[in-house]
Amino acid sequence: MKKILFSLLLLFVVMIAVYTLLFEEDVASLEQVATEEVKQFFGKDSIATPFGWFHKKHVHDHPNGSKVTKNTDGTHTVTNPDGTQKNLTAATTKTPDKNRFAAKGLPIKHAWLNYASFYVPEGIEVGTFTATYQVPAQPTGINAETTLYYFIGVQDNGSSPLAILQPVLAWNGKDAKEAWSLASWNCCPQGQVVKSKVLKGMKSGDLITTSIEREGDEYTISGTWNNQSATITVKTGEEFFNWANIALEVYDVKSCDNFAVGPMVFSALTMKDTKDNPIEMNWTITGNGVACDTRMEQKANSMIVQQN
Length: 308
Fold this sequence. Notes:
The chain is mainly beta. It has one helix and 21 strands. The chain has one domain (42-306): Jelly Rolls, CATH 2.60.120.1270.
């Protein structure tokens, strides 16, 4: 009887060990499969945003200077500079992909691949966050499905849906002639996504000045390149933006040459609270070494992202 019990116990231990090994090896691929299922769920109507996949009917382009306002009934209204308005009710299509997915090796379907982040001290809200982006060279391996998003952002992790403000540099493999673009984004009022006019034509080495600035109860998200700006304003409700981040978010990277060539530099980083006091930026970096020697490192007042 003792031998039987010992054999059963040994078998149980071996099964646990095998399961654990398989789980650890497959967890990233399972996450990538889940992301692919999201894309298949939306089909041709899916859009890869800087905050996950969304149905195209919930992604709204608006002219520069448009303002997003939360109404007393919980809905949101976007007011354009010419006075026209669009009401955003709760999203009718559930977006199952709103989380950052870890990645371990290629291919990568969707991930916040490299990012630095920190919470500001308790009771303090980010009032100003600025950076200068230096555009890297485009990938040498052109994959039409690849999208690369680089951005600074501030986020309220306590809201539902999560709220994030982002001036975003993007590379889209489907647009080979003008693959680099710039837009300011607000995700996700009522499960909707609002973005500014998209600027195109950036080249390797170009500098883009970006900012997220609060005045009164409004945040303005802006990116300026070649004397052109991509800007939207968000009037806050109960959101409290106390989590800052710098990120590279990627979609459909199949090989190392799908990444940009050379470093993407976020320089001249500054942050202040709503009373104009400097905030010490105590960054924690995540994602180094995941694939293609991808790495993010802080140098003085800059954050640098690079692969290969």
